[in-house]
Amino acid sequence: MTTRKKRLGELMGRLTKVGMSGPEPNAAVLTELKALRDRVPRLTGALVASNDGLLVAHDLPTHIEPNGMAAMAASQLALSHRLAATAHGGGFSEVVVHGTGGHVVIYAAGWTSLTVLASPEVNIGRLHLESRPAARAIADLLMPVANDSGKEQATKTH
Question: Which of 26, 39, 40, 147 is least surrounded by Cβ atoms within 10 Å, i.e. has the fewest?
């Protein structure tokens, strides 16, 4: 087995374990989620999931199943990406779902998405003001995981 394949297997194993077996979530991402919840009144929960629906971290109420919510967020994200590309030929940044029981907002965050849940009374402007930078921060926090593997591969192949 080549070093490259072995390293890729290790990376995939780490990413898969986070979403499926439920070990400790990325502490920095979880801290960001809890800080967001503290900053936005009426925010009821938040989660970060990969674009293919694997749970990375969550701060959700106990009545919401995190893996199921991660899968639904990934489905909505994929549909929103396609809709934005088809309608305007551009990229996707966020989608807002207004329901009678509250709001669900999904923000693109690199290879992941940030999903926030809020009550109907939330100040949606404040929600965006706090959540957009949080999504960028989460993308930055998770970027080294993908980049470290690529850097090692580049140095080993040259």
Answer: 147
